[in-house]
């Protein structure tokens, strides 16, 4: 009875205008969707004043975010919007104050647990420039545990200016997490292709998403020595990310694994990353080659393959992989898109950090990683 | 990274995660989730069992004291396989072989690791941890055990502290209630006492037979004794409430002693006791201090000495001590007797309230048992410490040393010797507001006898009306009255005076409430003076004289 279980439908426009977006929303609603995933490019320049009233008037649940770039099937859009008309209902929730140094997100997560059915997939989008994303995920996993699946990423702008970037029926909001429960299963692929290059180093000073000292020396000095020596280039006034995008940090995990942390910019001698870096941990400076990254995207696509009836494939792929791979990034998208059965739409955001549950560890916030989630109908829903 | 470095780095990071808080759950929350991430584990559970068999172990597995992620319901519902394993281990006295045992529960590796002798940690991880890691973790877990025990200990201390604070708050509340009760009771007793003493005074001024005069004198002395007891209780309640404050002023030391000790000398003579006092000649005569309170202490100590001495002598000496800064003297007051003495084990408790050295003392000698407590507190307020040296059967010496300032040129307040009740040369029109019929009658009689004219009001409202219509020279205003109290009436009169630009009339408060706060309330609403009932007629006349100079009088 697979014919009764349609795929999601993708509606795309490239003008980047508000009217263009709302025209897509109208069409998606008319198509009979039960909920709408909206992904918009940062270059559209959307503001709450432009969107809020019309988002609040939407008749069905809307969720999503603004990302530096978006992916619609095989296309990478620097401007424009996509609306994914989902054939399943969504329940959209928010947890606020994602940069509050004193916030404990456990009580808020506990409140959500009462409202969300076990076994749901939680599409977890965060303001990627918030300071306490890892703390939120820690509390989220503490409450929801392995009875739920997780998939998502960090929305926001490559200008690194924190601004409203999460879209829902509430409007356009910032510094919060958006947790959307979907009655669907998800098959995940997570991979990055970066490898240890220099280290180990001890993170001797860090708070939130900022590293202050490495091996008791100013963090930037240690980082700069390694990166400048390897790249043959020098850090100047405004080229930090141009160089840093090729040399992320890796938080050491037992048995050789690393969780990548992307240094976004420097604040004096401190390094500000996407996601928290815990103090007293061992880190490495990582390096990658285009080929190793592209191979990772292939592995990612293969791991996500499933025989279950498909709804849509959602890709959260780090924007810094685009910046690193440049014109070859289209190969990464192809690697992923080509593995999907025909007719299954691929919607993606090129994100500031990625969220997924690898299945054998606790929930983590990834950077510079490709996360593919293939949403499928649950067995009991078939 | 080579194995050695990896082991060291894991130990280093984990060791620094241990013990970040003294609250057990917070401490474990700061330890377990990052530790699980570092070790690539899926979940972790910790039981703090203290080596004890949990209650109900036969029917259900105990829930962990912390788990990451949190359990969904009881362990048996959320993790039935783990629950069964824990039930078995707990029943065997929580024995797990070191460095840990790994069980495969339906394809997943569960690491059961002892946390010292007091806790158990279960880590869920695939693939299982190699033994070298289990051994490396063991050292960290030993420290985790200490941190857990410290948290438990802290919680017990906090609990005890909270209970102590609660008990303290309850005791303070009870003490406050007691002070309020004492203040209230003193008011209730002072009102009829005012009537008894006043009417006795009145009758003593009239023509009575010798035997009637004797009875009246006895009534008066009994009433005064009762009043002394009430005053002691009041002083004690003030000390308890922390509201007793000294009023230092210049005074003449030798005159004070003379006035204080002569009546006591009479008492000593009645008991055939020798009574002497001496003041070192080097002590300046003009000092600054609370003469009234110093007198009270001396009366108490000398009174006790006389009371507890059956034969021999009572000696008071005041000597100068060295070491006082310029402008001050340190005086040592000592009261020695040859009385019954106090056993050594009782010498500390006699300064505690309601304590006498022996309960038989109370029966034999009477007294509230508050006198020494009050004296001790008063000496403390004056900057000294009341102490006792005593031998049973040979007598006692009570002594204290206090600093007093030497008075400059200011002359001490001259005590006006009590005068006989004489008709005044300058009659006043007195408005008396008093709801108690007996007290009102008494005051009217006394004032009339003294040559004043009296208008009577039964409450504040009547007082205001009479003031408006008669414009008297002075108002004697009871504070507690029905319909409108004295405070409200004073407020209305002062407002009206201000509106009509009238000269303010002197208003004297009459109240049985002898607390300092009552006096402040009276003065705050604009009263000029304060007379605490029961009052001596002469005191009333003196106050009238003070607040109504001759020039103000209408007649």
Polypeptide structure, described:
The complex is a heterodimer of chains A (382) and B (555). With 382 residues, chain A is an alpha+beta fold. Chain A folds into two domains: 2-191 and 292-381, no CATH class; 196-287, no CATH class. Chain A is 24% helix and 37% strand. Chain A has nine helices and 26 strands. Chain A has helices spanning 18-30, 48-56, 106-115, 133-144, 219-231, 240-244, 290-303, 319-325, 329-337; strands spanning 9-13, 35-41, 62-67, 69-72, 75-77, 81-86, 91-95, 121-127, 149-155, 166-168, 171-173, 177-182, 185-191, 195-207, 210-214, 217-218, 249-252, 258-261, 263-267, 270-273, 282-287, 310-318, 346-351, 354-356, 364-366, 370-376. In chain A, helix 3 (106-115) packs across helix 4 and helix 7 (290-303) runs parallel beside helix 9. Chain A is globular. In chain B, strand 15 (474-478), helix 13 (486-499) and strand 16 form a beta-alpha-beta unit. Chain B is an alpha/beta fold and 555 residues long. Chain B has helices at residues 3-17, 24-38, 75-78, 80-91, 131-205, 210-241, 253-270, 291-307, 359-365, 371-381, 437-449, 460-470, 486-499, 516-524, 537-547, and strands spanning 43-48, 66-68, 101-105, 108-115, 119-124, 249-252, 274-279, 286-289, 313-321, 328-337, 387-391, 395-406, 429-433, 453-457, 474-478, 507-511, 529-532. In chain B, helix 5 (131-205) packs antiparallel against helix 6 (210-241) and helix 5 (131-205) crosses helix 11 (437-449). Chain B has four domains: 3-161, Beta-Lactamase, CATH 3.30.450.40; 173-241, Helix Hairpins, CATH 1.10.287.130; 249-406, 2-Layer Sandwich (Heat Shock Protein 90), CATH 3.30.565.10; 429-552, Rossmann fold. Chain B contains 15 helices and 17 strands.
